[in-house]
């Protein structure tokens, strides 16, 4: 019975905090960033590790087009994918973009596939020293990646 006076102020503070939460908050804005076709080479099976099976898929090229970013994907990078024993696929891609105006952008994509359709949900970070694309260093980007005949197709957006 003595615990009730201690918890009563906590209950009132939780109620006050939840009362301040909007019932229907405004969702963030989205802006389409680009569509990319990533060409890949022959995969290398690293083998089974404690977390699952690792396969490295080299990135050997590709192209991307979008309203603010367009260019080619250089033959630098790979997807270090992990297939877990419980059916998930964790994608870990590093790649290099060269834009149409010759800016270099380093891309890191990490994602998760939960089904058998090959669709991977990815989050992406960018690094560049180019002043025209500096904003990408701070972009919160995410998208989808799905298999294609020569590799993967990526559709990417960022929060505005």
Question: How would you characterize this protein structure?
Answer:
With 160 residues, the chain is mainly beta. The chain has a single domain, classed as Porin. The chain contains 1 helix and 9 strands. Strands 1-3-4-5-6-7-8-9 form an 8-stranded antiparallel barrel. The longest helix is centred in the first third of the chain and has 17 residues.
CATH level 1 name = Mainly Beta
If strands are numbered along the chain, what order do they take across the biggest sheet? 1-3-4-5-6-7-8-9
**What amount of the residues lies in strands?**
over 45%
CATH topology, by name, is: Porin
Topology pattern, helix = H, strand = E: HEEEEEEEEE
pLDDT < 50 runs, ≥5 residues: none
CATH architecture: Beta Barrel
Shape: globular
Q: What class do helices, strands and sheet pairing give? A: mainly beta
> Mean of the pLDDT scores?
90
Total number of domains: 1
* Subunit organisation of the chains: single chain
Helical content (DSSP H or I, runs of 4+): 10-25%
Tally of helical segments: 1
As a whole number of angstroms, the C-alpha radius of gyration is 21 Å
**First-residue to last-residue Cα separation:** 51 Å
Number of strands: 9
The largest sheet is: 8 strands, antiparallel, barrel
Write a brief structural summary.
InterPro entries: UPF0311. This protein has one helix spanning about 5-20, and strands spanning about 30-40, 45-50, 50-65, 70-85, 90-100, 105-115, 120-125, 140-145, 150-160. The chain has about 160 residues and is mainly β.
């Amino acid at each position: 019975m003595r615990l009730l006076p201690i918890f009563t102020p906590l209950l009132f503070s939780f109620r006050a905090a939840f009362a301040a939460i909007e019932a229907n908050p405004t969702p963030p804005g989205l802006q389409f960033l680009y569509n990319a076709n990533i060409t890949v080479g022959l995969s290398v099976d690293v083998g089974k590790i404690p977390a699952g099976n690792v396969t490295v898929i080299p990135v050997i090229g590709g192209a991307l087009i979008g309203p603010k970013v367009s260019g080619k994907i250089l033959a630098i990078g790979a997807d270090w994918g992990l297939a877990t024993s419980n059916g998930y696929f964790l994608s870990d891609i590093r790649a290099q973009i060269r834009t149409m105006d010759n800016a270099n952008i380093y891309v890191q994509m990490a994602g998760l596939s939960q089904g058998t359709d090959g669709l991977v949900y990815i989050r992406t970070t960018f690094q560049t020293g180019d002043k025209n694309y500096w904003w990408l260093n701070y972009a919160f980007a995410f998208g989808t990646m799905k298999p294609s005949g020569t590799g993967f197709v990526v559709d990417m957006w960022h929060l505005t």
